[in-house]
Design brief:
This protein is of the alpha+beta class. 20% of the residues lie in helices and 37% in strands. It is built from three helices and seven strands, in the order αββββαβββα. The strands form two sheets. Strands 4-1-6-5 form a four-stranded mixed beta sheet, with helices on one face. A hairpin with a 4-residue loop joins β5 (70-83) and β6. The longest helix is centred in the middle third of the chain and has 13 residues, at 55-67. It is globular, with a radius of gyration of 14 Å.
């Protein structure tokens, strides 16, 4: 058990995809459904790692379930820990690309391609704050 886990309890492994457009100017952001925790906040596509999955396998599964696309998972863009009132997460954000399929909105309320500068106009999940700051530096 890490010091972080001792302090905050069970940590849920969460994966997310940083999917850029072909010009690497805009990335894909998804708005959470209204009925879920942090409803209508924006986030990167992804979700929780299931037992027996690698982080990469979990991310491929989540993108298929939520967007109907197959992705190629590249390197890690950033990792962070975040404590929400209802859960504590370790988030791993991977650089990814869509390798097949057409994006379909299967779970989210909305989906947008946005530049890092445009993120100030949207309310993102609190765990994404540091990621958005790093994206703005690019």
């Amino acid at each position: 058990m890490t010091e972080f886990e001792e302090r905050y309890g069970k940590v849920v492994q969460v994966v997310a995809a940083l999917i850029w457009d072909e010009n690497r100017e805009k990335f894909l952001a998804c708005q959470r459904p209204a009925h879920k925790s942090r409803g209508l906040m924006w986030e990167f596509v992804g979700g929780k790692q299931e037992k027996g999955e690698t982080l990469e396998e979990a991310l491929v599964r989540e993108c298929k379930e939520e967007l109907a696309v197959n992705i190629g998972v590249d390197d890690v863009f950033m990792e962070l820990d975040h404590v929400y009132p209802d859960l504590t997460i370790h988030l791993t954000l991977f650089n990814c690309k869509i390798v097949s399929g057409e994006i379909k909105m299967l779970e989210h309320n909305d989906i947008k391609w946005m530049t890092p500068a445009e993120t100030d106009n949207y309310t993102f999940c609190p765990a994404d704050k540091d990621i958005l700051e790093e994206l703005k530096k690019l």
